[in-house]
Amino acid sequence: MYVIVILENFTILFIVKREQSVHEPMYYFLCMLAITDLVLSTSTMPKMLAIFWFNSNEIVFSACLTQLYFVHCFSAIESGIFVAMAVDQYMAICHPPRHSTILTNRMVAKIGLVMVLRGSMLALLYPFLARRWPYCRTSIIPHTHCEHMYVVKLACADIRISSYYGLLVVFCVICRDVFFIVMSYTQILRAIFSLPTKDARLKTFGTSRFGHDLPLHFLVFIANMYLLMPPMLNPIIYGVRTKQIRYRLLRLFTHKGT
Fold first, then answer.
1. Is 202's pLDDT higher than 60?
2. pLDDT for 113 beyond 80
3. In this structure, what is the dihedral angle of CA atoms 19, 75, 56, 127, given to the nearest 10 degrees?
4. Which pTM does this prediction carry?
5. String of DSSP letters for 213-245
6. Residue 58 neighbours by CB distance under 10 Å
7. Do residues 73 and 123 make contact, with C-beta atoms less than 8 angstroms apart?
8. Among residues 27, 48, 159, 197, which one has the fewest Cβ atoms lying within 10 Å of its Cβ?
9. For 141-149, what is the mean pLDDT?
10. Residues with Cβ < 8 Å from 72, sequence gap 6 or more?
């Protein structure tokens, strides 16, 4: 799965860089998503494979905090990119005359910068808070990578600040992103179903891209799938399904022979 993530996302980046015809906001956002997925998976998967293959079960505290930062930082960046892609689709379908004038290359760059700054600043407090706690209990994390709450639960101190901040990020950032994504696609669906003919609706659909009671090993498995599956599926869902990327990909492999 990790190899597939690397191949798929680098292929998306290669195609968009090579083909001038896909130098548009949607594909720039797709490149941002590919880079984010590469960093997110690379920050956890090599160490996970080392655990499985070589029984390398140790990590120094500074490396653990660095991994923790990258996981939470790029998860927030990815969430923001999904919002940007949803808004891009909303503008393209619901307000096509204004799409090209508003979502210029300069605006796309500004949106990308805001997403990076937001994710970086939000994740910065995670390792800062984790470092300030005293640790006098076991040093074993019941996980395949360093995740904020799994790390701070090892502290022998009152970690309510870390818990509250984690909840704040989830409800004020992730939930808000989900709200904007749902609202954007709701407006897109309303616009699609208001089209007069079935063929027009189908054509427009073609432009959209789309536990405490549980055992610990199951929670760890779900967390690993959360980090592995989206980077593996995103290039297919948002990239290969689009006509332009699919055409360039096929042409890339058949150009010599045909």
1. no
2. yes
3. 130
4. 0.80
5. TS-HHHHHHHHHHHHHHHHHHHIIIIIITSHHH
6. 10
7. yes
8. 197
9. 87
10. 122, 123, 126, 148, 169
